[in-house]
Amino acid sequence: MDFRFSAEDEEFRQELRAWLQNNRPAQRSDGDDHADFMHEGSKDEWQRRLNWHRKMHSGGWVGISWPKQYGGRGATLTQQLIYNEEMAAANTPQLVNGLGIMLVGPTIIHWGTEEQKQRYVPKILSGEEIWCQGYSEPGSGSDVASLQTRAIEEGDYFVVNGQKVWTSDAHHADWCILLVRTDPSAPKHKGISYVLVDMHSPGVTVRPLVQITGDANFNEVFFEDVKVPKKNLIGEKNQGWQVAITTLMFERSGIGGGRDLLGQVRELAELARAVRSNGKTAWDDSSVRQRISSFAGEALALKYTGFRQLTRRLKGLPPGPEGSVLKLGTSELNLKMNKFAMELLGPYAQLEFKAPFAVDRGIWSYRMLASRALTIAGGTSEIQHNIIGERVLGLPKGN
Question: Going from the N-terminus, what domains does the chain have, and what CATH number goes with each?
C-alpha cells in the first residue's frame, strides 16, 4: 500500500490547519475540552459547542466529503481522513450534531429520495436540526431486530407507539431516525421500516438517564400515537433492516475511525512521567514503559486498519465488517488505557472529575467511568466479535 498523500491532499491539510489556528476557541481551564468525547457538560458548554459548530459550518468545514449540492465541500475520502487527524490534533470542541453527521446524513444520501436529501441534509450540516437514533429498546438492546415499537398505517401517516432507550442527544434532538415494526407477522428481520420522526410531534416524551459520570446525555423516549407522514419513510416499507445496517456500518466505522488513540497514548505517557512513587516517576519503571509501548502498537494497528476501511470506501463500497474490527479494537483499547491510568494514579484515582487535588483535574477518573459506554454503544463488543467471526473469518453462526 502507498500511504503517501497527494500534493492536493497536503495542500488541503495546510489550509485546514491554518484555519483552525486562526479560528479555534481558547482551551477551557476546567478540563471539559479533555474529558471525553461523550462528555455532556453544562448548558453553557452546549451553547459553546453550538457556536463552534456554526463557525465551522460557515467556514465550509462540516460534512466536508458530502456532495456540494447538499451543502458539503465535495472533498475526497483521503481528505476526510486528513480532516479527522487535524481536528483531533487541534483538540477543538465537539460539534453538536455528531449523530447527524456520522450516521443520518450519510444514510439519507445513500438511501433517500432527492426530495429527502434536499430537505434534511443541509440542515444537518448547519446544525439547524439536531438528530438522534431510535434503535435500542428495553427488551431488544443488542438484538435490535427484535424491536417491538409499532407503526400502523392510517391514511397518509404511520401512527407510532413504543419506547426506545439509551438514545443519545434525544433531549437536544429535533429529529430521530426510528426503526419501527410495520409487519408484526413477518420474520423479525423483515417487516421493519426506517422512518424520520419530528421529535416535537405530539406524543413524544423524552426522559434523560443519569449515568455514573453524572452526565445525562442518554435518554428514554416514549412514542404515544405519534403521527409520522409516509413521505418520511427511508427506503421501502418493511425493508428497513437494510437501511438500518447501513447506518450501523457508518456508526461503527465512525466510532472506531474518529478517535485519536495515539494522542491518548501520549497523554498516558505524560501522566506516567508526572506520577511519582518512592522518589521515582512511574515512567522510570520499565514495565510501565512496556505497557504504554504496547498500547501505542495497538493504536497504530488500528490506524492502519482504518486505512483498509478507507480503501474499501475509495472503491465505491459502503462501510464493511472492517468497521466492526475498528469499533471493537478502539473501544477495548480505550478501556484498557483508562484502566491502566487508574493503576498509575493509585489513591488519586478515587478523586472525581474536577475535584480539588485531583491529578489532571480528575480527567482520567471521568474517562474510566465513561469507557464502558463505548463498548456498548454502536453494538456491544460481543456483537462485534460475532460479526467478525461470521463475516470476516467465515466461522459458522453460534446456536
Answer: 7-96 (1.10.540.10), 131-240 (2.40.110.10), 259-392 (1.20.140.10)
Are the CB atoms for 136 and 194 separated by under 8 Å? no
53: nearest Cα among 14, 23, 89: 23
Helix axes 77-90, 7-23, angle to 10 degrees: 30
Lowest-pLDDT choice from 25-39, 166-180, 196-210, 313-327: 25-39
C-alpha to C-alpha distances, 122 to 62, 129, 361, nearest whole angstrom: 10, 9, 38
Q: Mind listing the pLDDT tens digit for each residue in 220-232?
A: 999 999 999 999 9
Which residues have C-beta within 8 Å of that of residue 380, sequence separation ≥ 6?
Answer: 141, 142
Report DSSP state, residue 232: G
Residue 108 in grid coordinates: 439519507
Q: What is the mean pLDDT of residues 385-396?
A: 88
User: Contact 338/368 with Cβ under 8 angstroms?
Assistant: yes
The residues annotated with a catalytic role in the active site are 251
Q: Which three cell numbers stand for residue 87?
A: 481536528
Query: Which one, of 146, 230, 238, lies nearest residue 192 by Cα?
Result: 238
Q: What is the DSSP string of 315-337?
A: TTPPP-THHHHHHHHHHHHHHHH
Q: How far apart are the first and last CA of the chain?
A: 39
Cα–Cα–Cα angle for 366, 372, 375, rounded to 5 degrees: 140
Question: Are the CB atoms for 5 and 82 separated by under 8 Å?
Answer: yes
Q: Is the pLDDT of residue 164 over 80?
A: yes
Facing residues of 222 across strands?
A: 163, 205
